[in-house]
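Residues determine shape. We examine one folded chain.
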Amino acid sequence: MLTAIGQYVGGRIVTAVLVVASAGAVIWFWKHPEHLQAIWQIVKYGIAWLAFVIVLPWATFFVTPWVVARDSNLAAALMLIGYLLVDVLVAFWMIGSVSSHNALTWVVLLLGFLSAGIYNLKACEFQASRLEDG
């Protein structure tokens, strides 16, 4: 009986918290239509850039065997720097310019570039390991 009461009261409390949190989110994030359009534009560009970053090492799969055949750290570094440079150029092309951005934008961009570089390294490592295995 005590368990049933606890479940009932707990369910009501969770429901109340979710309703209040949802209402707060709607009030907090209520923006004018032009602000919403700008936010969605940023989200669309971000998703498109992430898709580009994810596809780039796999679309240029023929580069990794060439680098592995060279057996050179310089060739591997140049490949990764090239991938990162393309990622950076596409990001700046999408946002339109390099100037007139605040500090938060630059921090987000730098974290995105760092993440893209790490992803490129891991994707190329995976491709190289598959070449060595088979």
